[in-house]
């Protein structure tokens, strides 16, 4: 393979990783916007977040086509193949993060009233900060091809799950104490679940980054096993 | 390309579709088992369903690797490439149907008491029958490469969404009437949401079958647009 072809190939792999990073930035912003819209009951921001998800979906579809073309053209092996496969999977997780952010934004419109409890809002915000920082860290780990950083992200998911569980219990208590808040609390429960699932996608991405870099699978940890936990 | 190579290639594509069909059968059974476990509070069946999901995950991982190898080796174009891409996406949707069935099974264990309302159980069962028949029909459409049948599955998703919405409202009413059923109703809400999402995956599969057969995109219909509906 000539120098030129090789470098052209490297450029394609770099461009591919760049597209995934672009999707990551959009997914992060959608998630952050959806939760601030929720906490501040900002219907306009919620509507903008819902509209914005189309962009992430089309980026994903473009990228998927490009990656298959790349495989067909380059017939990659080993590390190159792992990088292309990881990009496909990570883009898929980011597209789903966008969907989950959109779900939260739709709940903002369904709730359409101030949150009954500042304490609850704080819980949801805290959970969001954690999940968002997980997402940022794993996208950095992907950009830097840092397997250890990816492993740390996987480990930290248990914390997001723990906050989710406490929010879940708190919401049930509010509902039992005051039937008038049941509808709002149910929407908040679904929001919290969506945020917890965003944390799970950060974990999936971490596992794909780790495999891409090392060729080894990260052992699934407790948090990951509980991904579909029943609370 | 020699006769032999061509027929070997056809065999590979047939084997690929067979693996997707196998995943489809397992996902259907997991879904049906999870809901009967829920309705009859059968903890053993619930646990078996949770354990069984591992099989679907490993089938998906094997298939994904096989499909990439196939693309690398055969460099497919046009219809062949569409069939391989569709298989990848449909397998991904089926793996997620398995996760959703597992979620329902985990809720059975969390509820761990008889359902308060037979009427509710009937609603959930009815929704399940519809979503399950959507899943069966779309897998048949995939096996027969029947674009029209796939289009009908997409159209019918609105009905699943409608039943979900009525169950959602009914559950809220129960909770407001009797705080003692709140915890159970919340778990049932999440179960109903998971079943509604299984219907959405049947719709995704329908869109991929339609594209695979025709090379054209099905216009997203109302039901699909509401996939992440806020109730």
TrEMBL record, chains A, B:
Keyword Transport attributed: yes
Pfam families: PhoU
GO biological process, one term: intracellular phosphate ion homeostasis
Residue ranges of every copy of the PhoU domain listed in the record: 21-108, 124-209
Keyword Lipid metabolism assigned: no
A single GO cellular-component term on record: cytoplasm
Transmembrane segments: none
Keyword annotations from UniProtKB, A to Z: Cytoplasm, Phosphate transport, Transport
Chief localization: cytoplasm
Highest taxon listed in the record's lineage: Bacteria
Entry's localization field: Cytoplasm
Family per similarity comment: Belongs to the PhoU family.
Subunit relationships: Homodimer.
Role played: Plays a role in the regulation of phosphate uptake.
Protein name according to UniProt: Phosphate-specific transport system accessory protein PhoU
Encoding gene per record: phoU
């Amino acid at each position: 393979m000539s120098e030129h072809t090789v470098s052209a190939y490297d450029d394609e792999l770099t461009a591919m990783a760049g597209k995934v990073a672009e999707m990551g930035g959009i997914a992060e912003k959608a998630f952050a916007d959806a939760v601030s819209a929720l906490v501040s009951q900002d219907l306009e921001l919620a509507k903008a977040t819902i509209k914005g998800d189309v962009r992430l979906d089309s980026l994903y579809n473009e990228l998927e086509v490009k990656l298959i073309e790349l495989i067909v053209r380059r017939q990659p092996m080993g590390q190159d193949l792992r990088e292309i496969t990881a990009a496909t999977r990570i883009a898929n997780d980011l597209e789903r993060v966008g969907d989950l952010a959109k779900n939260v934004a739709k709940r903002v419109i369904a709730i359409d009233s101030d949150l009954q409890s500042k304490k609850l809002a704080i819980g949801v915000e805290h959970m969001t900060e954690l999940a968002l920082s997980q997402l940022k860290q794993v996208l950095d780990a992907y950009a830097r091809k840092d397997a250890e950083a990816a492993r740390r992200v996987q480990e930290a998911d248990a914390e997001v799950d723990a906050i989710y569980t406490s929010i879940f219990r708190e919401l049930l208590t509010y509902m039992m104490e005051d039937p008038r808040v049941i509808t709002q609390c149910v929407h908040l429960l679904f929001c919290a679940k969506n945020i917890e699932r965003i944390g799970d996608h950060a974990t999936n991405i971490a596992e794909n980054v780790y495999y891409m870099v090392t060729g080894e699978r990260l052992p699934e940890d407790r948090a990951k096993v509980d991904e579909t936990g029943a609370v």
